[in-house]
Amino acid sequence: MRIMVTGASGTIGGEVLRQLLAAGHTVRALTRDPVRASLPESAEVLRGDLTDPETLTGVFENVDRLFLAPAFAVSATVNDVLAAATTAGVRRIVTLSSGAVVEDEPGYGDADYHHADEVTVEQAVEAAGVEWTHVRAGEFMANTLDWAPAIRAAGVVRSPFGKIAAGMVHEADIAAVAVAALTEDGHHGAKYVLTGPGLITPPEQVAAIGAAIGRDLRFEAISPDQARADWLAQGCDRTFVEWMLGPEDAPVSESDLVGAAELTDDVERVLNRPAHTYARWAADHADDFR
Ligand SMILES: NC(=O)c1ccc[n+]([C@@H]2O[C@H](COP(=O)([O-])OP(=O)(O)OC[C@H]3O[C@@H](n4cnc5c(N)ncnc54)[C@H](OP(=O)(O)O)[C@@H]3O)[C@@H](O)[C@H]2O)c1
């Protein structure tokens, strides 16, 4: 059995690739730039661009199963990509989607839905005549790697919404669920919504990083307006900024979001072990913050 991993140089695809290789599977990895991606030698690395199906000629030959990510790259071309994959013989596809995709939410399926790319990819895969599983990941713990430069430089994190607890999830758990769906039977048709084991606020996350690196760190709450200015200046995508903070003329209110997050037990149900805590994640990434 040969498994293809797209997004293989990314946070989740990279972890899927490493876990599959560690379990002894034959893995092919897709990247636009094999030199820059610097992927493990035991993977068969092919060049390809999901936005340009002509670059995918032959990449799916002898591939049985596919991990498909990221949705933003493949949504516009997904039908061509799936046609190439299924014609070549791919029979099972696991997508990386988002826990923010909710079918009965107003606007679901509209072109301007906040996670329209994920919906497009999920629906196309469901219609492709293959076995499928959607891995709808919640907020990645790895997002807080963005804090590393400020922590290393000054021991302080400036961020909005200090009171909002989130059920953040470790990339190793997201990848492990994807690997289970790729390699075990019994996951066809599942839409797994993945969270960590507990709700944790940004100041608690900062404290956990401080404990992991043995240093006192400080959390400083900033206003959503300040965060908007900072994030746009850092080059963050405007759609992402609006999703996080709301539009400028109708910003989201922190008090509306406090208590809104929910936990699931899908990681534990699939893996037969509890999801990793944020403290575990901080320990795993301590060197990134030193
Ligand atoms: N951050 C969160 O909290 C969160 C939560 C739920 C879901 N998500 C979803 O997770 C996805 C991002 O996953 P990630 O963080 O693992 O990715 P990432 O670390 O941002 O890496 C992006 C990956 O996409 C690949 N890629 C980008 N454009 C490509 C293209 N045109 N053709 C082929 N490959 C392309 C890159 O490969 P090369 O550069 O090597 O080609 C790279 O491996 C997004 O769809 C996001 O919506 C994120």
UniProtKB/TrEMBL annotation:
Transmembrane segments: none annotated. Residues 2-225 form the NmrA-like domain. This is Uncharacterized protein YbjT (DUF2867 family). It comes from Crossiella cryophila. InterPro entries: Ergot_Alk_Oxidoreductase (IPR051604), NAD(P)-bd_dom_sf (IPR036291), NmrA-like (IPR008030).
